[in-house]
Design brief:
This protein is α/β, with parallel strands linked by helices. It contains 8 helices and 7 strands, in the order βαβαβαβαβαβαααβ. The chain has a 7-stranded parallel sheet with strand order 3-2-1-4-5-6-7, sandwiched between helices. α1 crosses α8. The protein is globular, with a radius of gyration of 17 Å.
Length: 244
């Protein structure tokens, strides 16, 4: 099975670091023209050098107007990966309104806005398309000290299902990838404490956390023609965590 995206334009949010960077590099390797979005110009410049080209958009997706403007600036998009996300670990009783609103703005609202703009373009062109959201195993289980994050990823899974239902008649497929802890700077911050890391690792049958390439490969598959009959799915990339 060979995955190719020649002639297709792929918009990847949160592309400056971690999973998003890995996805951008993989899609480019498979022939896509990558449009990378990040709030960090420095990260985008480093990515541009790694890609030897591509299109870069600087935007803060916590701002609804910037999110919409970025989607419009991207122009034609055939493949959309809503990867950008934040985590502000707080216990339920200590979760602040500010942290909750910030998490929902980036993890859910930005995905909604970008998808609306991109999907309207896909419908107008009449050639279909594919959208993948980066969700989490945290959408399906409760994780202590991740109140806002768990809530946002549960909402993102439901957004995935509704989009698949309504956009399916236009041949636009919408899926989510739900990783376990993936070794990125954000996850290292949340899981650096051995007291937390050990018990989480023990719940994963494969006995390890995910690497960024594990997630990128799943995303590329769901975007590809090989997944043409898959829509509305939430695909765990979790080493079996949810099987227990």
């Amino acid at each position: 099975m060979q995955i190719r995206f020649d002639g297709q334009r792929a918009l990847v949010t949160g592309a400056g670091k971690g999973i998003g960077r890995e996805i951008a590099l993989l899609l480019a390797r498979f022939g896509a023209t990558v449009i990378a979005l990040s709030r960090s110009p420095k990260d985008l410049e480093q990515l541009r050098r790694a890609l030897d080209g591509g299109e870069m958009i600087v935007a803060d997706l916590s701002d609804a107007q910037q999110a919409r403007a970025a989607a419009e600036q991207a122009g034609r998009v055939d493949l959309l990966v809503n990867n950008a996300g934040i985590s502000i670990p707080q216990s339920f009783l200590e979760t602040t309104v500010e942290a909750f609103d910030a998490t929902m703005a980036v993890n859910v609202r930005a995905a909604l806005i970008l998808s609306q703009v991109v999907a309207r373009g896909m419908i107008k062109r009449g050639q279909g398309g594919a959208i993948v959201h980066l969700s989490s195993q945290a959408s399906m289980v409760g994780l202590a000290d991740h109140t806002a994050y768990c809530a946002s990823k549960g909402a993102l899974d439901q957004l995935t299902r509704v989009m698949a239902l309504e956009l399916g008649p236009h041949q636009i497929r919408v899926n989510a990838v739900n990783p376990t802890v993936t070794l990125t700077p954000m996850s290292e911050m949340a899981w650096s404490d051995p007291a937390k890391r050990g018990p989480m690792m023990a719940r994963i049958p494969l006995g390890r956390f995910a690497q960024t390439q594990d997630v990128a490969h799943a995303v590329a598959y769901l975007l590809s023609k090989q997944a043409d009959m898959i829509t509305g799915a939430t695909l765990p990339v979790d080493g079996g965590f949810l099987a227990i």
